[in-house]
Structures are given as structure tokens and as C-alpha cells.
Design brief:
Enzyme class: oxidoreductase
Family: Belongs to the aerobic coproporphyrinogen-III oxidase family.
CATH class: Alpha Beta
Number of strands: 9
Number of domains: 1
Largest sheet: 7 strands, antiparallel
Cofactor: a divalent metal cation
Catalytic activity: coproporphyrinogen III + O2 + 2 H(+) = protoporphyrinogen IX + 2 CO2 + 2 H2O
CATH superfamily: Coproporphyrinogen III oxidase, aerobic
Keywords: Cytoplasm, Heme biosynthesis, Metal-binding, Oxidoreductase, Porphyrin biosynthesis
Strand content: 15-25%
CATH topology: oxygen-dependent coproporphyrinogen oxidase
Strand order of the largest sheet: 1-2-3-4-5-6-9
Oligomer: single chain
Length: about 325
């Protein structure tokens, strides 16, 4: 009997149940979309899609989208379930043993961009990838996490977000939160800027520890913790007054978000390299962003405090 390892080698005690994962993911998408629609006062639109015959990928998905809402300037919650004959380079770069395998990738991914600059952008995703080859045992792994990107920082918001992340992982081992937090801090980092994207959260990939049932339970706990982590933060900040100066700074920092997603994000690269649906892959982009040449905030301002007090890596709880 073999054990699981970080590359997702399958534990023979449990076979990956893609039907159960798919059912949970679609239910999670509906739960989150309904809650956010109620919060905004605007139901999220539904865009169902299927891959066309002859495409590199097979399958489809559903995107729940809001644009120009009362609270959310833009937000998308996408479910996709696609398969292909070969894994893209972004998936096999560190896993040579997976070359030549077909795959099925399914997941829920969301990014929410509130209009109010005092309300942070948030990202969350949970996914499973199953790699198969005739005559060989399937290989699976889970990935995902959530992270918070404020424009104007509040310590209690970052503390609450991280506390929910920690509590979601606690039943599966005290080592997971510090391990996944560190992974998040390292992953959501703009190397070309030498700065973090936000205040972090948790991030994990290639996860199959304890076999399918244990790993799936952990991922469910993360996904179901999202609303507990984010809704109290935006409820507290939604009525904070703001002006044009705050909106300009928000647009400037959104530019960093765009840079990360296009230059560094593995999920974006996987989707584009595998022939994924571009509109769904890029739904994470903010509705507006800006860039300024060699700009720095004035010392002592709330904008400067984001850089000095919130972007540097720190322990929030």
C-alpha cells in the first residue's frame, strides 16, 4: 500500500470521487453567489457555457457574474469542469512523471472587486486535478486557498480573515495554517515589484495528504469558510465615506492585481496554456485600473500606511 505525497500520488485506500467533488463545487458556487447577491441587492447573472466540438478541451462550466452592482463593482464566481488529452506545461514543469497523461480539472474560483476603496478585494478558489493514463493508477491533487487585498488597511479585518483561515484548517492539523500562510505569502508576491499583493491568507497546491477522503474534507472546510472570512469585513466597511482620491489610489493598486494575475499566477497560465475559456479565466480582472510612473504615496498618509504596515509579511494572529 502506497502513501500520498506532495505530488498527489494516489493512496490505494481511497479512489478519487470526481462525482462527489463536482456536486460539492456546484453547491458551493450557488451558496456563495446567493449570499453575495443578497448582500449587494443585485442577483448575480448566470452564464452557462460548453466547449465547442473540436476544441483542445472538453467540458464546460457556469459563471455567476455581477457588474455595476450596488456594492460590487465587479465580481465573478466561476465553476468549470474540463478535460484534455495532455496536461499543459504549467502543470508538468515540476512533475515530469505526469507527462503524457490526460486530465480532468474542476474547481470554483472567485474574485470580488467592491466599489468602495475601504472594502478589500478578495480571491478564493478550490479545485481538484485528476491525471489519468491507461494501465496506471490515477493521480489526483487538490489546490486552493483565499487571500485578502485591501487598499486601506485595518488590522482587525486582517486578523479576522486569518483567524477564519486558521480555524478552517485546524481540524486537519495544527501545522497546516502556518504552512499554508507562508505558502500564500510567498506565492502572492510580485517579484518584479518586491511587494506583496495584499495581506495574504492561505494557499496550497499538490495536496493529497491522508488520501482522497481526508484531503477532500480539508478542501471543503476551506471553501465553506469563505463567507465567514469575508462577509463580516465588508459589512463593517461598506458605509465608509470615500472620495475621488481614494478611488484613484484603488485604481492604482488594482494595477498591481492585474500584473500579478497576468505575469505570475499559475492558474491563469494553466487556463490559457490548456486552451481554456478566456472570458472565464480573465473574469478576475478589475473593471478599471491605472498605472503611474514612479509614483510613491506621501509619508504619513493612509496610502503610505498600506506599504509600511500591511504589505510587509507579518503574523496576523
Amino acid at each position: 500500500m502506497t502513501d500520498t505525497n506532495r505530488t498527489g500520488a494516489l493512496d490505494e485506500r481511497a479512489t478519487p470521487d470526481s462525482v462527489a467533488v463536482r456536486a460539492w463545487l456546484t453547491g458551493l458556487q450557488t451558496q456563495i453567489a446567493d449570499a453575495l447577491g443578497a448582500f449587494d441587492g443585485t442577483p448575480l447573472a448566470t452564464d452557462r457555457w460548453e466547449r465547442e466540438a473540436g476544441d483542445k478541451l472538453r467540458g464546460g462550466g457556469c459563471t455567476r457574474i455581477i457588474e455595476g452592482g450596488q456594492f460590487f463593482e465587479r465580481g465573478g464566481i466561476g465553476f468549470s469542469d474540463v478535460s484534455g488529452d495532455t496536461l499543459p506545461p504549467s502543470a508538468t514543469a515540476a512533475r515530469a512523471q505526469l507527462n503524457g497523461r490526460g486530465f480532468e480539472a474542476m474547481g470554483v474560483s472567485l474574485v470580488l472587486h467592491p466599489r468602495n476603496p475601504y472594502c478589500p478585494t478578495v480571491h478564493m478558489n478550490v479545485r481538484m486535478l485528476l491525471a489519468t493514463k491507461a494501465g496506471e493508477a490515477p493521480v489526483f491533487w487538490f489546490g486552493g486557498g483565499m487571500d485578502l487585498t485591501p487598499y486601506y488597511g485595518f488590522e482587525e479585518d486582517a486578523q479576522h480573515f486569518h483567524r477564519v483561515c486558521r480555524d478552517s484548517l485546524a481540524p486537519f492539523g495544527a501545522d497546516l495554517y502556518p504552512r499554508f500562510k507562508r505558502w500564500c505569502d510567498e506565492y502572492f508576491f510580485l517579484k518584479h515589484r518586491n511587494e506583496a499583493r495584499g495581506v495574504g491568507g492561505i494557499f496550497f497546491d499538490d495536496y493529497a495528504e491522508g488520501g482522497f477522503d481526508q484531503a477532500f474534507a480539508m478542501v471543503r472546510s476551506v471553501g465553506e469558510g469563505f463567507l465567514k472570512a469575508y462577509l463580516p469585513v465588508i459589512e463593517k466597511r461598506r458605509a465608509t465615506p470615500y472620495g475621488e482620491a481614494e478611488r484613484e489610489f484603488q485604481a492604482y493598486r488594482r494595477g498591481r492585481y492585474v500584473e500579478f494575475n497576468l505575469v505570475l499566477d499559475r492558474g491563469t497560465h494553466f487556463g490559457l496554456q490548456s486552451g481554456g475559456r478566456t472570458e472565464s479565466i480573465l473574469m478576475s480582472m478589475p473593471p478599471s485600473a491605472s498605472w503611474r510612473y514612479n509614483w510613491q504615496p506621501q509619508p504619513g498618509t493612509p496610502e503610505a500606511r498600506l506599504y509600511t504596515d500591511f504589505l510587509p509579511v507579518r503574523d496576523w494572529i
